[in-house]
Design brief:
alpha+beta, Nucleotide Exchange Factor Grpe, Chain A, domain 2, 2 domains, 3-stranded antiparallel β-sheet, 2 helices, 6 strands, unfolded protein binding, GrpE, protein homodimerization activity, adenyl-nucleotide exchange factor activity
């Protein structure tokens, strides 16, 4: 009986050893498959990461371009609004200059107030880039509008200025209306 028990124990031990060997071989095969599966999954995730990085970079690029475009549009809108506003103020400048001319040589506190108001308005316009068109260098069709002939002026020179011209940030805001020599 002891021998039978020993034999059974040995048989059991052999069976367990065989099962362990089979299990170890199965686990090794599963491990091999798992490593291959994991490597495939890693490769797939790396490809997915590259794609997402490219999408993110493209989105950042598009956002930067949008910000730049919005800034350009805002600047253009600002310039347009400033141009319209400055054109309207030029009428006030013209009226103040006419009032000074109409007063003639008579000095009065009212005339002094008009002169100071004109000076203040012109200073404010200059702060924002509105500058009077140059009249000293002769007629320039880009800056002056000839509306007639000045008989006492030389050819190509400005005889009489009917209305001053102005530029805004080196762009023509209003041409000077002048009489030109023939």
């Amino acid at each position: 009986m002891a021998t039978e028990q020993n034999q059974n124990a040995q048989d059991l031990g052999l069976e367990q050893a065989d099962e362990q060997a089979v299990n170890a071989q199965t686990e090794a095969e599963q491990t091999d498959l798992s490593v291959e599966d994991l490597q495939a999954q890693i490769t797939q995730l790396q490809d997915s990461l590259k794609l997402e990085k490219a999408r993110t970079a493209n989105a950042v690029y598009e956002a930067q371009k949008s910000v730049e475009r919005i800034q350009r549009d805002a600047e253009k809108h600002k310039e347009t609004a400033l141009e319209k506003f400055a054109k309207e103020l030029l009428d006030s400048v013209d009226n103040l200059e006419r009032a000074i001319q109409a007063a003639g040589d008579v000095e009065s506190p009212l005339l002094e107030g008009v002169k100071l108001t004109l000076k203040s308005l012109l200073t404010t316009l200059e702060k924002f880039g509105v500058v009077e068109v140059d009249m000293n260098n002769g007629f320039n069709a880009d800056l002056h509008q000839a509306v007639g002939i000045a008989p006492d002026a030389k050819a190509g020179e400005i005889g009489t200025v009917l209305q001053k011209g102005y530029t805004l940030s080196n762009r023509l805001l209003r041409p000077a209306m002048v009489l030109v020599g023939q």
